[in-house]
Amino acid sequence: PMLLLTKPLSQSEKRMREIVSTQTRLLKSGVHKYWAQPFWQQALNLMGASDHMIELTGVAMKEEEYTSVIPDPLLLASYRLRKLELMCYFRCHSQALKYAELLESTASSIETMCPLVVTKHCWVGITYLTEARCGKARYYKRKAKRALKRLARLVDAGCIDAKPYYLILKANFAAFEKEDVAPIRMEFDGAIEAAIKSGFQGIAAFAYEQAYHSLRDNHEDERCVQMYWNTAVEYYTSWGAFGKIDQMKQLQRHRADPIAANSQLPSVVEVDVTD
Description:
Elements: H1 3-6, H2 9-27, H3 31-47, H4 63-69, H5 73-89, H6 93-105, H7 114-134, H8 137-156, H9 162-177, H10 181-198, H11 201-217, H12 222-239, H13 242-256
Helix pairs in contact: 2-3, 3-5, 5-6, 5-7, 6-7, 7-8, 7-9, 8-9, 9-10, 9-11, 10-11, 11-12
């Protein structure tokens, strides 16, 4: 799972494509095919090589078909986690809650797999905090706090991959609870530093973008926070997430144009991913 974060998406997409091709050729199916397909399609969506931002349907898989034949609960949980992660990257928070609650309510062996459980707690926590801003603040804040504590325990246990995720969720808590922008900025700067040290390009980009929105929502001057937005674009570009960049640019234009701001969210542009 961390391959998607430490390598350019084009390399991840190629590797996942090779796994699926080999499994299909040799076994006609195989568990590794079902495991790799959502990761492959997730990479394609982030790259912009899909007709939709958050639907896992495209070259790698057809979502409806995949969910009808998925062989075991672990693979189903991994698929749901890919959906939730895409929704967080593309800021489709209203649809993310369904998958956060499914991951929380359905028992699976995902809890024994460190990379998956780390990302699960982070995305679930961010989704619940977003819901807390919209309503039922105490209820969803309590659920997000539970995810933060679980990440803290993983960090204390020596899971080095958990630290950037823990710090990002912790920074989001600071943005939720504090009015002064200084501590919010400090928390996000710490999360960004941890993500960069871990080599997680995607998470570093996400942290910069989260910092921009959180500081802007807390009334920090636009000119002061623009650096976070610009650096997020740089990191998403380095990662190869051109679909995400396209969305960011269109959203920026929407903010500058009050009429366009009332239109639908932009679709992901298509890019060529052939060798």
